[in-house]
Structure prediction request, 604 residues.
Amino acid sequence: MQLHILGCHSASPSPTAHPTAQVLTIRNHQFLIDCGEGTQVRMRLNKIKFTRIKHIFISHLHGDHFYGLIGFISTQCLLQRETELHIYGPKGIKEIILLQLKLANTYTSYPLYFHELSSDEPEVIFEDEQVIVSTIPLVHRVYTNGFLFQEKLGERKLNIEVAQQYPIDPVYYNSAKQGKDIKLDDGRVIDNKKLTFPPDKPLAYAFCSDTAFQPEMATQIAKVDLLYHESTFLEEHEDLCEVTKHSTAKQAGIIAQKANAGRLILGHYSSRYKKLERFQQEAREVFENVELAISGKVFEVG
Amino acid sequence: MQLHILGCHSASPSPTAHPTAQVLTIRNHQFLIDCGEGTQVRMRLNKIKFTRIKHIFISHLHGDHFYGLIGFISTQCLLQRETELHIYGPKGIKEIILLQLKLANTYTSYPLYFHELSSDEPEVIFEDEQVIVSTIPLVHRVYTNGFLFQEKLGERKLNIEVAQQYPIDPVYYNSAKQGKDIKLDDGRVIDNKKLTFPPDKPLAYAFCSDTAFQPEMATQIAKVDLLYHESTFLEEHEDLCEVTKHSTAKQAGIIAQKANAGRLILGHYSSRYKKLERFQQEAREVFENVELAISGKVFEVG
Prediction:
């Protein structure tokens, strides 16, 4: 699993502060999470292949999280994309996008699906054999969701050295990977545990931005391997959190600690801060394994 | 008069090809013309002060000409702008912007006015004592206007050396600048032409993008000092002009020649061309004074 940060600053973009966008590579998927203005250019700079992105998750309808979406969608038209594209985001996102396409007299060359979200409870919004994605209801000035990306338990792994000691036709290897014992032609039954190793531990990533401090979310994201939690402010500006519905770095640390997360990544920094080290320092007061999101940085997990 | 190119490529933005946006400084105004994705960052890089922009002219609702507008408008909210902002653009632009502000639960801290355009005839859309702005109806795949920016004839200029030879109270200098003869206390009348020089020749700039080749526009933009005319294609791809409703560099040259323009600036290059010199060469076959728009370049006139 890999998390590629394309942008991690809040509010207005500048030549050095790019708004939220990140690409999660999980099993056979590349998911785009949020899409601030300029994301398509950030993707080109970071060599993210447009057609690999089939699912885009938008947390909320503030500009620094989605003003780049219409540009990405339009560029796919110009490039004559054929692969389908799914957009998950708050109710209203479909109207905004379709209105702009209509007024530009543009039709998508590819199937474009909207999955509008309005529930205040966690819900599964994507699932296949490999991965499951759920919303994490957040508390912000507008309707906002975080997203929990969970790998499913994979197949067991064949112990090829042991398997080859028995007269097993390789067509049965898949059954073994699926946990089945293998019956030989001579009637013997080989216990699956002899033939296979357990699957890798499934990994999980939680994206939580933007949100006020909300300790009760720790239950839903318990034991995630990687947690991205917004930290718009340092403690000296904690008083701004209440009206803006944002969090401090230390509050992000508390969430990580309560959730027993593997690693915490901070981001969504207010542009008032020129240096970011203090975000890490303040979160580390409560949680050890903290890193700073930086545009262009790639975090590997597992 | 000064034209500052912020972006001049067509279609999808890339790290080196920025979509259309330019700032015209004319008399006491700075007008923003078109606002492709990323324009606010281009403005910061080019040190354009946001609050100096009070009027934004949008040619048409294709993304490479206006997807940066909502970001610019939102950033003005975050910066707590108080100065009014006027948007001139095709019918529908108000609905797009207001829908996005509504769904972001955002209110502008400043007066925001929309002037929606729908006429197929040239019309005056802005006028004050200094400047007049008219639409130039263009032919494109969607409703599109170019814009003609004209300085008004200014005041006559006082010949201070001559004026001081007469017993004229300086409070009458303004009357002289407005073309009036001055009557002295002893009854003599001083002819205005003795006291003043003629005003500077008023300058004019025509922005024509995007458009199919449309020679009849030459009448409306006759004798402009500066003409920006799109040149999406070179002659080898002239066949693409008909379906896309764009022009070649040579066609832009023909317009400049027919209009007897002072200078032609080419832009809106298709991203298929890596080198731009041929645009200049092909336009120069019909019109001598041709320059290439380049992001960040400033053209001075007058």
User: Anything to note?
Assistant: The mean pLDDT of chain B is 97. Chain B touches chain A at residues 11-15, 37-38, 40-41, 44-45, 61-63, 67-68, 70-71, 74-75, 78-79, 90, 92-93, 95-96, 99-100, 103-106, 141-142 (CB under 8 Å).
